[in-house]
Automatic annotation (TrEMBL):
Gene name, Swiss-Prot/TrEMBL: ndh
E.C. designation(s): 1.6.5.-, 1.6.99.3
Keyword Transcription regulation: no
Location of the FAD/NAD(P)-binding domain: 7-334
Cofactor: FAD
Keyword list, A-Z: FAD, Flavoprotein, Oxidoreductase
InterPro entries named in the record: FAD/NAD-bd_sf, FAD/NAD-binding_dom, NADH-Q_oxidoreductase
Name of the protein described by the UniProt record: NAD(P)/FAD-dependent oxidoreductase
The organism of origin for this protein: Arsenophonus nasoniae (son-killer infecting Nasonia vitripennis)
Any one Gene Ontology BP term: aerobic electron transport chain
Organism domain of life: Bacteria
Gene Ontology molecular functions: NAD(P)H dehydrogenase (quinone) activity
Similarity comment: Belongs to the NADH dehydrogenase family.
Amino acid sequence: MMTPKTKIIIVGGGAGGLELATKLGRKNQAEIILVDRNQSHLWKPLLHEVAAGSLDDGVDALSYLAHARNHYFHFQLGSLIDIDRENKTIKLAAIHDKEGQLLVPERQLDFDILVMALGSVSNDFGTAGVKKHCIFLDNPKQAHRFYDEMLNLFLSYSVRHKPDDKINIAIVGGGATGVELSAELYNAIEQLTSYGFEGLDKEALNVTLVEAGERILPALPIRISTAAHHELTKLGVRVLTQTMVTRADADGLNTKSAEKINADLMVWAAGIKAPDFMQQIGGLETNRINQLVVKPTLQTTLDSTIFAIGDCASCPKKEGGFVPPRAQAAHQMATLCYKNILALLEGKELKEYVYKDYGSLVSLSRFSTVGSLMGNLVRGNMMVEGKIARLVYISLYRMHQIALHGYIKTGLMMLVGSINRIIRPRLKLH
Ligand SMILES: Cc1cc2nc3c(=O)[nH]c(=O)nc-3n(C[C@H](O)[C@H](O)[C@H](O)COP(=O)(O)OP(=O)(O)OC[C@H]3O[C@@H](n4cnc5c(N)ncnc54)[C@H](O)[C@@H]3O)c2cc1C
């Protein structure tokens, strides 16, 4: 008689979870089920490009069902809402259609091993008016909403334009998302001008980037944040540091120093947290931003059959502090989690995760790329800029694609990308 296979559920098919499901599926040693609330995967660091229209996710998104079939795992569409550790089940919310008709009732799936990889959402720190008036860039739906509203603003401006009239866009948070989106907006306006949007030029755009800390890109070396600040200012972005937003209204942002920043469109990209429903989910230990606290083996502190990886995990670093919420960390954690799950199944000792920081690159659209390479790539910490930086920036996405598709298919995808750059418009226009 055949013994039933161990059932491994991975919740969240993002930068970490999808790579893990792909690796485990190939191994074919257990029954692998990937659960995601969306039908398709788009690598999250591309969201600001979707928001500005420089990337069409209709072309780049990957169908979970197709990928699951090709890599020997199962896919279940659904949103996790709870974990029952005693009965080793997870609960998925009911699914409704656009009209609110029930399609699939609430359901439970049982597991032997569970991996939580459901990422993070923006943290508005309870700031008044933010949920109502600002757009977050947490998923493709929100990126589309920004894109549609931006295009509407540009369209109405190009029809009505008068002297001194401006398109005011405010972005809160001077991290990579805020900085990269600011630059993408200038690329978008240049492209739209070239496609015939009348009266629309760089001067029409008034982008304000607001950061509460002393400098933008606070997680990166000071030289890089200075270089990025300089590049943004050159493009025309008003960069406000040491500026705390206290409230968002329909017509703009209010700051602690009582300044009003007028804005027709506002994005909130200041800080992250794991989703609120994760707070003490299943009685597991969580921190103040709802992340699951894990041991260096990536097992949650209170249940060794539940792992957490990526942004939703709070993982201590050997040298102190915690692993940052980054795509490279999610990628590395997926690799170790894969090895540790196999070790657990084979009764071997589990390894500890050591975060390797290869540096950070920030893309200022086609205008520039700045960043630093660190540790294992170069000796010490080296600042890079321009074409080399752009190449390394793109290579982070390539690594993700290689982990999912292998070298040959990734090569073919790069070829299709090059052809698309010739035959498709530079900017999504609808
Ligand atoms: C605009 C932007 C730019 C960025 N740029 C960079 C960069 O240049 N470099 C870098 O290192 N990092 C960057 N990051 C951060 C990086 O995207 C994240 O650290 C990384 O994606 C985290 O991976 P993850 O697997 O933990 O989660 P994600 O990649 O966010 O995946 C989470 C998955 O879980 C699913 N999910 C969520 N909730 C549920 C639920 N309840 N039930 C089922 N499924 C669920 C989601 O649909 C998603 O597919 C950027 C982030 C943003 C927003």
